[in-house]
Specification:
Lipocalin, globular, Immunoglobulin-like, HslJ-like_sf, alpha+beta, signal, Putative secreted protein (Por secretion system target), 235 residues, four-stranded antiparallel sheet
Length: 235
């Protein structure tokens, strides 16, 4: 067997492994997950949405290409996973967050707990359970360190901003924000270091981002009762 044939066979088997790895994932894993509860080893439950009832709901979105993004209380994050089909685990291989300073100690503590769990560079075991009302996702990265999510919003106030459509992404000039009503929104764009680079109160349909340099940004959109943060790529 010559070297060219060997190389082709290696590429072929690597391709088969990649396809097997992707197909082995449960498609229910993809989508937006709303944080319900955090547990931390001997401390047990350290954050529970139903106890805290915040105006915001931390979120994690897992995409089919295994990139992920989300936000906590005042900062957004993004990265990508690798998937182990044999162990049914996700491992974060990249994690980038904005660095805005939250308003309260409760928000700061939540983000420390939540982001440490999401970013932990170790295997996160996956457990998915469904009932008639929602699907629940548990990600456990160490024994007792568990983040529990649901695929439905836990807050009525979240519905307005969850219906927003933000496009195009990547964006070069105008970023359009479609919303279900004429409510005034506070829009702030942050760079990956948490610096505010653009801010406006708007009931308009678009935000001009043409002056920004290319790169990753986080757009924070706030209404009277809720906040949404999403990763934006400036092309």
């Amino acid at each position: 067997m010559n070297s060219k044939t060997t190389k082709r066979l290696l590429i072929f088997f690597c391709f088969l492994f990649f396809i097997k790895n992707i197909n082995a994932q449960d498609s229910n894993l993809y989508g937006t997950w709303y944080l319900h509860q955090l547990e931390a080893d001997l401390d047990g439950v350290v954050w529970d949405y139903e106890d805290v009832q915040p105006d915001y709901i931390p979120q994690l979105t897992i995409n089919s290409d295994l990139t992920f993004e989300g936000f906590g209380a005042c900062n957004g994050f993004n990265g990508y996973y690798t998937y182990d089909a044999e162990q049914n685990t996700l491992t974060p291989n990249s994690f980038v967050q904005s660095l805005a300073v939250c308003d309260t100690s409760g928000e700061i503590n939540l983000e420390n707990l939540f982001f440490n769990q999401v970013a932990a560079n170790t295997s996160h075991s996956i457990t998915l359970n469904s009932n008639a009302d929602f699907t629940q996702l548990r990600l456990e990265n160490f024994p007792g360190y568990i983040a529990t999510y649901r695929n439905v919003s836990l807050s009525n106030s979240d519905q307005i901003l969850s219906e927003l459509k933000i496009y195009p992404n990547p964006v070069s000039d105008n970023l359009f924000i479609s919303k279900p009503n004429s409510e005034v929104l506070d829009v702030v764009l942050y760079d990956i270091y948490g610096n505010s680079v653009l801010q406006q109160k708007t009931i308009e349909e678009s935000v001009d981002v043409s002056i920004l340099t290319e790169g990753i940004y986080f757009i924070k959109i706030s209404s009277a009762n809720d906040t949404r943060i999403q990763k934006i790529i400036k092309a």
